[in-house]
């Protein structure tokens, strides 16, 4: 095509999309050659040396797979690896779940948690009668895009209280009460992303009261089971309360990226709880149909690793120890950061750092302070002050505290 024809290209109508904020932040960090730079943007676990950590249990399971002469690279079924699907249901609902005994639940393997949300959105766009979805303010950046692309009217419900740096329960309940009856409500099962603020069990009960009264449909996004507190059952409490105590139907988007460290293997599941076994079977058939035309069938290797661990009692025990290692280090970093800030006499109250849970913390830092941290101290985080606690370690947490102390004082 000559230069005279370039103006006729169809692609002239394609605008340049803005860069993804998280991956753009990581790219900026990678270009920075300063030795003391810190990346607090990416949501991936790092050990105390700041390096990616392959879980010991993953190493064991991987080796077992490689030594298995029966291992092939054939397609998985459309719905995924059966052993993984069944184990995913047991993991989130508990092995003694009445919903499992009554065969009212199914799971379909997905391309990690993002895929689970996307598959759920596509299904609800076809079959759910209400076109309104509510996400927390703030929420994981992909929630709005996923449900907006599926054709939903995406609104927000009040969640974070910027004054207390905790949960605004009354605002949340008011938002849910004001939403159109039967709306889809995206709930974070544990370790809320990005704030690290979770409801207490008593608060979850009040949330369930409104959900049930308004006929809202809950979709739990569960990306951090076991990673938040180190206790798989504790992190699943809210989901199990909705399903077992309140008898509510729901979707649960599960991810094995964080709690297995399998970020690049893209392994997850969408678990569905219905009122009857017949309805569960219908849901699986339609979800499989959607999966078939989108990606045909899911990737196998990560699924086989997770399945091997979840279905082997010895490996499962090793995994729970690995989870305590990761969650324990995160809790330690929260404690150390708060202690350093208190020791420095940094203006403000920093108790929220240890009250919050999971990988992320909403620090309360303002955009101008975040910008100064990046330009002066080479500390990278999102502009809303969210930090990944996994980016801190015993070698840099004091540096981080001193930098925060400086920018807070200089911008007061």
From TrEMBL:
Enzyme class name: transferase
NCBIfam families: PRK09257.1
InterPro entries: Aminotransferase_I/II_large, Asp_trans, PyrdxlP-dep_Trfase, PyrdxlP-dep_Trfase_major, PyrdxlP-dep_Trfase_small
Biological process, per Gene Ontology: aspartate biosynthetic process
Entry keyword set: Aminotransferase, Pyridoxal phosphate, Transferase
EC number: 2.6.1.1
Pfam families, A to Z: Aminotran_1_2
CDD domains: AAT_like
Family: Belongs to the class-I pyridoxal-phosphate-dependent aminotransferase family.
Protein origin, superkingdom: Eukaryota
GO cellular component, one term: cytosol
Cofactor: pyridoxal 5'-phosphate
Organism: Piptocephalis cylindrospora
Protein name according to UniProt: aspartate transaminase
Quaternary structure, from the entry: Homodimer.
Domain called Aminotransferase class I/classII large: residue spans: 37-403
One of the record's GO molecular function terms: L-aspartate:2-oxoglutarate aminotransferase activity
């Amino acid at each position: 095509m000559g230069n005279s024809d370039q103006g006729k290209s169809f692609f002239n109508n394609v605008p340049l999309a803005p860069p993804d904020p998280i991956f753009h932040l990581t790219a900026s960090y990678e270009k920075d050659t300063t030795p003391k730079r810190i990346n607090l943007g990416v949501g991936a676990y790092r050990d105390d040396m700041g390096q990616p950590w392959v879980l010991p249990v993953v190493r064991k399971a991987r080796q077992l797979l490689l030594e298995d002469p029966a291992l092939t690279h054939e397609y998985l079924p459309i719905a995924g690896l059966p052993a993984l699907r069944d184990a995913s249901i047991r993991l989130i609902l508990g092995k003694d779940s009445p919903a499992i005994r009554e065969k009212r639940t199914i799971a379909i393997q997905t391309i990690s948690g993002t895929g689970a949300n996307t598959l759920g959105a596509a299904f609800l766009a076809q079959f759910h009668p209400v076109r309104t979805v509510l996400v927390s303010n703030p929420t994981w950046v992909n929630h709005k895009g996923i449900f907006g692309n599926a054709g939903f009217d995406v609104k927000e419900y009040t969640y974070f209280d910027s004054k207390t740096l905790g949960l605004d329960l009354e605002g949340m309940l008011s938002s849910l009460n004001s939403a159109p009856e039967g709306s889809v409500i995206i709930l974070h099962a544990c370790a809320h992303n990005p704030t690290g603020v979770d409801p207490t069990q008593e608060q979850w009960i009040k949330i369930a009261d409104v959900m049930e009264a308004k006929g809202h449909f809950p979709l739990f996004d569960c990306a951090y089971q076991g990673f938040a507190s180190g206790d798989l059952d504790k992190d699943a409490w809210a989901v199990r309360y909705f399903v077992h105590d309140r008898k509510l139907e729901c979707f649960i988007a599960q991810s094995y990226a964080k709690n297995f460290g399998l970020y690049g293997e893209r392994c997850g599941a969408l678990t569905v709880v219905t009122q009857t076994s017949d309805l569960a079977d219908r849901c699986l058939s339609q979800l499989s149909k959607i999966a078939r035309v989108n990606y045909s069938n899911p990737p196998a290797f990560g699924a086989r690793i997770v399945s091997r661990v979840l279905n082997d009692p010895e490996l499962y025990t090793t995994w729970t120890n690995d989870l305590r290692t990761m969650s324990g280090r995160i809790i330690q970093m929260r404690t150390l950061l708060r202690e350093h800030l208190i020791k420095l006499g940094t203006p403000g109250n920093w108790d929220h750092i240890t009250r919050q849970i999971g990988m992320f913390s909403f620090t309360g830092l303002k955009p101008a302070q975040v910008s100064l941290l990046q330009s002066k101290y080479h500390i990278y985080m999102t502009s809303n002050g969210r930090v990944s606690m996994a980016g801190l370690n015993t070698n840099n947490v004091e540096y981080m505290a001193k930098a925060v102390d400086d920018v807070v004082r200089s911008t007061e």
